[in-house]
Design goal:
Aldehyde-activating protein; Metal Binding Protein, Guanine Nucleotide Exchange Factor, Chain A; globular
């Protein structure tokens, strides 16, 4: 458990987009799918699932859209200046935000994944801690 005091502020890499997380995330997930590896240019990406009412985002955002393997539309919002992904959502469920810029918060103590998904595509060298939920595909 962490001692995070909400709200927590943050910003993208260039500072053009600012965000305020007003409450603890509902879930923190590490995704190991190939798309997230490309997105993060790392072995996985971290997603904080938050209620839309619990996050404020200020700044100019661009958006992309793609259809996920599930058939759901995935709309991504990123900084128009530096290109940092800020969040994504499924337009059919806009009340849930998949906050991708959590590592850019001023206080990141809460960023401890409780679940790892798409472990079937994870890099071989990644070791998932004992006791953490794992799913070979999307949960």
């Amino acid at each position: 458990m962490t001692n995070v005091s909400y709200p927590v502020k943050g910003q993208c890499q260039c500072g053009s987009v600012n965000f305020i997380l007003k409450a603890a995330p509902k879930a923190i997930i590490a995704c190991h799918c190939k798309e997230c590896q490309k997105l993060s240019t790392s072995a996985f990406s971290i997603t904080c699932v938050v209620d839309a009412k619990d996050i404020d985002v200020q700044g100019e955002l661009k958006q992309t859209s793609r259809i996920a393997d599930s058939g759901n539309e995935n709309v991504g919002y990123f900084c128009s200046g530096c290109g940092n992904r800020i969040y994504q959502l499924n337009p059919a469920a806009p009340e849930l935000i998949k906050f991708k810029a959590a590592e850019s918060l001023d206080d990141t103590q809460m960023i401890v994944p409780a679940m790892h998904v798409w472990t079937s595509e994870k890099q071989d060298w990644v070791v998932i801690p004992d006791g953490v939920q794992q799913f070979e595909k999307q949960r």
